[in-house]
Amino acid sequence: MRTLIVDDSKTDRSALRGMLERVSAVTGINEAECLDQARGVLTGDAVDLVFLDIEIGRENGFSLLESVGRDRRVIFTTVHNGYGGQAFDSDAVDYLVKPVTEDRLLRALTRAAMSFGRPTAPLTRVPVHRSGSARRFLVLETISAVIAEGNYSRVLCGSMEYPDHRRLREWEKLLADFAVERLDRSTLLRLDHIEQVEPRGAGACLILNNNGKIEIGRTANERLREVLA
Q1: Phi, psi (5° rounding) for residue 165?
Q2: 1-41 pLDDT per residue, tens
Q3: Which of 85, 102, 114, 154 has minimal Cβ neighbours within 10 Å of its Cβ?
Q4: Buried residues in 2-20 as b, exposed as e (16+ CB within 10 A)
Q5: Which of 113, 98, 99 has the alpha carbon at shortest distance from 27?
Q6: Apex 32 CA angle, 74 and 30, nearest 5
Q7: Is residue 120 a part of any domain in this protein?
Q8: Which of 54, 87, 115 lies at the terminal end of a domain, its last residue?
Q9: Rounded distance between C-alpha atoms, residue 41 and residue 205, angstroms
């Protein structure tokens, strides 16, 4: 799906773009910071799905719907939860309240794909927990890294970290379908989530495209250089 993000917040556009860039079903991402820009993009045929904020400066996102047309789909993204009825009355695919989470976004994209009549693979969710910690269900596609901690692990998903009872080798099997590389004895990293590599002595700080960060040591940094080369 080719997408258009319409939002006057650069931070919110960047966060949503970072998540969309990791979804294989998304083949293009356009951005507009105002409705006039959005209308310009929509005059072409490069958009299937519009992520539309509601309060855009002094404008209202609902006024863009006429330009969107019937052949495209709309997912509203807003900090307000009071427009849901109006949004669904306008045949929106979904209504996401900011901050948008990876799991919620993927479910909305699945609905959009189904509305186009396109086949979509089910999302693979796994329970993540350690004895004494809350059980969370994470979508495998959103996991950026797994760090070994003795007989357990720590899972990085977006800017959040979750303790888990699995060892690293178990995570290697779970993430086998993704571009995951084992950098050293304790670090499993999804390579296509890396946005920037900042040197830190012999190691590095990796900036991920979902607002996450991870520090790696000398051995992991050397292996990462080999893989990226």
Answers
A1: -85, -10
A2: 899 999 999 999 998 998 888 777 788 999 999 999 999 99
A3: 85
A4: ebbbbbbeeebbebbbbbb
A5: 113
A6: 70
A7: no
A8: 115
A9: 36
pTM: 0.59
Contacts of 190 (CB under 8 A, 6+ apart): 143, 144, 145, 175, 178, 179, 180
Residue with tokens 């979509």: 120
Q: Which of 60, 80, 115 is the last residue of a domain?
A: 115
**H/E element, 72:** none
CATH number at residue 27: 3.40.50.2300
Q: Count how many residues are written for the chain.
A: 229
The predicted-structure confidence for 90-122, as pLDDT tens digits, reads as follows: 999 999 999 888 778 888 988 898 888 866 555
At position 56, the amino acid (one-letter code) is I
Cis peptide before 99 (omega within 30 of 0): yes
**In which domain, by residue range, is 102 found?**
2-115
Q: How far apart are CA 73 and CA 93, in angstroms?
A: 6
